[in-house]
Amino acid sequence: MCITAFDAVSGPRYTAFSELLPLLAIGTSPFLKVKEIRQAIDTSSLTITNSTTLSSPFATLSFSASATFEVRSPSRIQVTFKEGTFQPPQIKSSVDLPENVNVFGQQINISPVQQSLGPLQDAVASIGRVISGQPPLKVPIPGDRTSSWLLTTYLDEDIRISRGDGGLFVLVKEGSPLLAQ
């Protein structure tokens, strides 16, 4: 197995990583969706970037964690996280609420709320103009959680299954026909 086969990955399709589970649970709410979770491995610079994009009716939020890695064997790497980056929110030009929301198994029609959002949309647009163009917020990752390891247990042209001290990860490569399923 060789880690270089997965330079960019969309995923995870499955994870047992406890710190990611709350994020995935948030994505089941009607007003906040996980748009993308991705891992990019750059073998030339020995860096990894884990990134997440969330989408709400008002804005798209993106954040990432960057790390360096050291190859310990053909299937194992040692990872050291360096910093987290929070991109300025991308404010949407209009509020995009669903017509109905499922609350505890009951469909609630919220289209009347959509019709009364004119003043709120103006405020959101004003905020968007203020924060657009702001630089991302970069935060060093401190403490003993910066070091981790990752062991690739299965790898083909579409899937990578890895285990680490944080859990189990099943990732599908960007562009794979498996993503269309």
TrEMBL record:
This protein's GO CC annotations: plastid
Superkingdom per UniProt: Eukaryota
Alphabetical list of InterPro entries matching this protein: PAP (IPR039633), PAP/fibrillin_dom (IPR006843)
Keywords: Plastid, Transit peptide
Residue ranges constituting the Plastid lipid-associated protein/fibrillin conserved domain according to the UniProt record: 14-171
Subcellular location: Plastid
Signal peptide start-end: none
Family: Belongs to the PAP/fibrillin family.
Protein name according to UniProt: Plastid lipid-associated protein 3, chloroplastic
Source organism of this protein record: Morella rubra (Chinese bayberry)
